[in-house]
């Protein structure tokens, strides 16, 4: 099938996925890897641990695809029925992989546990398949090349087993079998401070005229990502295409772009920049109740630039911990520019850091001091600059007001670092 336009379907097997007890992260992992190989995924299906329904799904998938990838159901329990069902569909028997069986026997011998007969199922694969080694578990995977129809790839369900099996064994095999002239390469741009509708409006002509690379915007909580995908014969050519398109995008909305990648975050970007410039930071939080500092704490190595901070939810805590005069708060209000500035500056002074940031406002649902829910003041004492404060209005529920406040504070710091 070399060079042929592939139709592929991913089938996740597991009642726990249908019930929402676990998230189907495997499908996203496999789809991204296949896209990078130029293999198109046309359908994704989830089916429970039921042989009749699984058979129906396999029959449908086999008719409309060149390759069907099944994930899960390769274990030793009664509801692990994937390989048995596919074997029955193909009219094949199950055979035992000697190396996999030896690994299982050795495990039970070493752990002094009784090995039951059903454990042998994990070492079995469909007759005529290529078995795929499981380096982190016991259930063997397999690839079945069907000369008269659809091919099948069977992978274990646990991500800790599926990902290394796919990367080390299945992906090289698929690349050899279905190699294409052109491969797909993607780049994800991440934006904060601009909504999806406005971002799309500003680059509407690029989207309307897209061919190669293509552009796909995705709205996430409080931010937007834009995936650029180029088709090219090699990575260097794709990079040139992606660089050119990124330059066009950034000429319109570059001020809102903070980083790259599916898994990058605004806090990780800011912390990395602070560490690079060796700038320390602290915070005084009222509205956000420590959420900003918790976000910092999730980034490994942040202790190099974050010595600690303050959570001053009540007014007396602002006075006792930050030495803010009580009459100042009474005159100006806790939700005010003055209070936000004092909080940021006093936190910076007390912790002897380069940067101090503060959050005070109304998370809701009720108003405070005549301010509606979503009213937020953020203060920033940045290095040797005069302390500043900005007023924001976030029209969302309580938890999202806090989340948006934290991200807005991080983005303000990011912008100051770029000056």
Automatic annotation (TrEMBL):
Segments forming domain MoaB/Mog: 9-176
Protein name as catalogued: Putative competence-damage inducible protein
Domain of life: Bacteria
InterPro entries recorded: CinA (IPR050101), CinA-like_C (IPR036653), CinA_C (IPR008136), CinA_KH (IPR041424), Competence-induced_CinA (IPR008135), MoaB/Mog-like_dom_sf (IPR036425), MoaB/Mog_dom (IPR001453)
Gene this protein is translated from: cinA
Pfam families: CinA (PF02464), CinA_KH (PF18146), MoCF_biosynth (PF00994)
Protein family: Belongs to the CinA family.
């Amino acid at each position: 099938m070399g060079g042929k336009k592939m139709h592929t379907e991913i089938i996740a097997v597991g009642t726990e996925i249908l019930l929402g007890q676990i998230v189907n992260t495997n499908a996203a992992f496999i789809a991204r890897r296949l896209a990078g190989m130029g293999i198109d995924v046309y359908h994704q299906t989830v089916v429970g641990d039921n042989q009749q329904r699984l058979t129906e799904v396999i029959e449908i998938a086999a008719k409309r695809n060149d390759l069907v990838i099944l994930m899960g159901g390769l274990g030793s329990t009664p509801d692990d029925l994937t390989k048995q069902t596919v074997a029955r569909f193909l009219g094949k028997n199950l055979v035992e992989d000697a190396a996999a069986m030896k690994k299982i026997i050795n495990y039970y011998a070493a752990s002094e546990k009784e090995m039951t007969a059903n454990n042998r199922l994990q070492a079995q694969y469909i007759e005529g398949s290529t078995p795929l080694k499981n380096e982190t578990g016991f259930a063997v995977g397999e690839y079945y090349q069907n000369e008269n129809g659809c091919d099948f790839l069977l992978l274990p369900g646990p991500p800790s087993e599926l990902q290394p099996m796919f990367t080390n064994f299945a992906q090289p095999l698929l690349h050899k079998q279905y190699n294409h002239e052109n491969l797909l390469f993607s780049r994800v741009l991440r934006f904060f401070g601009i909504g999806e509708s406005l971002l799309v409006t500003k680059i509407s002509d690029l989207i309307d005229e897209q061919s190669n690379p293509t552009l796909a915007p995705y709205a996430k909580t409080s931010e937007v990502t834009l995936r650029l995908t180029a088709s090219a014969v090699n990575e260097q050519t794709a990079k040139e295409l992606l660089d050119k398109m990124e330059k066009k995008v950034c000429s319109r909305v570059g001020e809102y772009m903070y980083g790259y990648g599916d898994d990058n975050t605004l806090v990780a970007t800011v912390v990395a920049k602070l560490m690079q410039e060796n700038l320390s930071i602290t915070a005084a939080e009222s509205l956000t109740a420590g959420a900003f500092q918790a976000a910092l704490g999730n980034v490994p190595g942040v202790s190099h630039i974050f010595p600690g901070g303050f959570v001053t939810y009540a007014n007396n805590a602002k006075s006792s911990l930050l030495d803010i005069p009580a009459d100042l708060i009474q005159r100006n209000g806790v939700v005010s520019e003055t209070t936000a500035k004092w909080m940021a500056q006093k936190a910076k002074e007390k912790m002897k850091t380069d940067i101090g940031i503060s959050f005070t406002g109304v998370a809701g649902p009720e108003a405070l001091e005549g301010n509606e829910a979503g009213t937020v003041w953020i203060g920033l004492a940045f290095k040797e600059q005069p302390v500043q404060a900005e007023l924001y209005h976030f029209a969302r529920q309580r938890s999202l007001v806090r989340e948006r406040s934290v991200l807005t504070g991080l983005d303000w710091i990011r912008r100051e670092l770029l000056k």
